[in-house]
Amino acid sequence: MEQLSKELSLPYTGTEQDWDIEMADSNRIDEFIKFYNESNLCDDKKVAVMALILSSYDDLLNENNLEIDKRWNGIRLILKSEKLIFNDLIEYWSLNDKKDIIDLFKITPLVRTINTLE
Asked: What pLDDT does residue 101 have?
């Protein structure tokens, strides 16, 4: 987390419990996606950066009361292309055991489509 925070100029202090949620920034989603796509990341770093992207995207949806925006397709393609390494993230954001919309993240319906779309 420390190295990624330096590379992404994030306000990391070392005391974060949920790095991806605390470092999320809906204004930097495009930058985070570009970093993911242009960096040679190991699987652990891919997961960390994708967690940051998903948290930031969920913030964007909440802040703007959106259901989806143009960036989702790119995020979805990354998730689908490396689904095995992102399985835990997909499960986390999918909240498959929850049915009531009040219990879901704003991004949950989108993430749930990862397993159903071709």
From this structure: 83
Q: What is the distance between the alpha carbons of residues 36 and 46, in angstroms, rounded to a whole number?
A: 7
CA distances from 67 to 8, 26, 92, 107, 118 (A): 27, 14, 19, 8, 20
Average pLDDT, the chain: 93
Q: For residue 47, which of 74, 83, 8 has the smallest C-alpha distance?
A: 83
Nearest to 59 by CA among 105, 114, 116, 99: 105
Per-residue pLDDT tens for 65-88? 888 889 999 999 999 999 999 999
Contact predicate 105/58, CB 8 Å: yes
Closest alpha carbon to 49 in 16, 3, 110: 3
End-to-end CA distance of the chain: 33
Q: Are 19 and 48 in contact (CB under 8 A)?
A: yes
State which amino acid sits at residue 21.
I
